[in-house]
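Reminder to self: tokens first, then the designed residues, so the page reads top to bottom the way the pipeline ran.
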């Protein structure tokens, strides 16, 4: 495996495409000009387009550009159909290449469309958010929401190339950076404790000076690459990366996505650890060690009698469930997580309420 920490690129091996490349770049316009040709169609998030208009000179007078309104409510089949109609109006062809510029929602929309349009066309990706750069840009997955079900529909469809432009991070809000940090923490805690302690010890500086994030992005990709090359289609060991996500997705649902994804995952990991503690598969010292790390990126949220039933209902809709049991990843130690199926019963309800009581006292 390439030593990504010492270089600016890596190759991810894929059973779908053979391989694809991730490259850290210093000049956005130069890279766009290098890959531009008559086959390129650019699909770009409107916020990125506005923020970086001076560097996107190639796109200003280009007729083959589609502007996306990237929001959770638009990550749907209906919105994908709207984008496909715009592509058809641009005379999209089977041998064209879609160039996606934006965050994870832009990625999901473009990856999904490129996998079904003409039964598949190529695409490249410029991830603009920390969450997309450190996580979703590799791994092949696309995910689309359906009605009230999050990420219910999707395909496996990696891009041909991924270009990580670090200056995108300078436009992000503190909330968006914290969201990315939450996603990185979930990788770090599946490997051990050191990187989790390291990033949270620097969190205040990282929120102000984004240049230090590159080291942590590369470590996140390093951890993910190792697992997805073994289990690209999420059939076995890749399940460990659902750590925090079952409980985090349900938090997003009951708060109507007012809590950023990565921070919901941060809270989801802490809750998963508390459930592990209550099931006596994680000891108190280990729980506290991880809790002190996660606490520094925790969003304000409390489980109570007013929201617990809605939360349990949201848990019941998770696509990882089986035989009316909740499929989740629990922790047995820092760096050691396992898949469990647990009952959605009164014990779980009381444990979650007990967690909030504990959390308020810490």
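Designed residues (362 positions):
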């Amino acid at each position: 495996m390439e030593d990504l920490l010492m270089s600016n690129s890596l190759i991810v091996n894929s059973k779908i495409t053979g391989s694809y490349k991730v490259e850290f770049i210093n000049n956005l316009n130069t890279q766009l000009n290098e890959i531009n040709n008559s086959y390129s169609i650019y699909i770009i998030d409107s916020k990125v387009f506005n923020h970086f208009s001076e560097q996107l000179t190639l796109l200003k007078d280009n007729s083959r550009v589609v502007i996306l309104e990237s929001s959770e409510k638009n990550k749907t089949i209906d919105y994908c159909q709207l984008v496909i109609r715009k592509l058809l109006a641009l005379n999209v062809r089977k041998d064209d290449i879609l160039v996606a510029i934006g965050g994870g929602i832009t990625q999901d929309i473009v990856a999904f469309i490129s996998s079904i349009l003409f039964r598949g066309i190529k695409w490249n990706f410029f991830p603009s958010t920390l969450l997309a750069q450190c996580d979703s840009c590799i791994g092949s997955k696309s995910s689309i929401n359906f009605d009230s079900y999050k990420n219910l529909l999707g395909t496996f469809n990696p891009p041909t190339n991924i270009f990580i432009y670090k200056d995108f991070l300078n436009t992000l809000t503190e909330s968006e950076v914290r969201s990315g940090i939450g996603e990185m923490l979930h990788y770090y805690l599946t490997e051990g404790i050191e990187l989790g302690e390291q990033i949270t010890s620097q969190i205040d500086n990282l929120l102000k000076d984004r240049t230090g994030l590159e080291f942590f992005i590369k470590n996140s990709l390093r951890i993910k690459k190792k697992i997805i090359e073994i289990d690209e289609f999420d059939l076995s060991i890749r399940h460990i990366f659902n750590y925090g996500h079952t409980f985090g997705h349900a938090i997003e649902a009951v708060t109507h996505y007012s809590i950023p994804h990565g921070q919901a995952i941060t809270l989801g990991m802490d809750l998963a650890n508390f459930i592990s503690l209550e099931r006596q598969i994680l000891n108190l010292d280990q729980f506290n060690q991880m809790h002190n790390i996660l606490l520094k990126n925790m969003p304000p949220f409390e489980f109570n009698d007013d929201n617990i039933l809605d939360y349990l209902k949201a848990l019941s809709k998770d696509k990882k469930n089986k035989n009316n049991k909740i499929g989740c990843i629990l922790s047995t130690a820092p760096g050691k997580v396992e898949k469990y199926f647990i009952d959605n019963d009164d014990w779980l309800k009381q444990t979650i309420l007990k967690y909030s009581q504990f959390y308020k006292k810490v």
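The radius of gyration is 20 Å.
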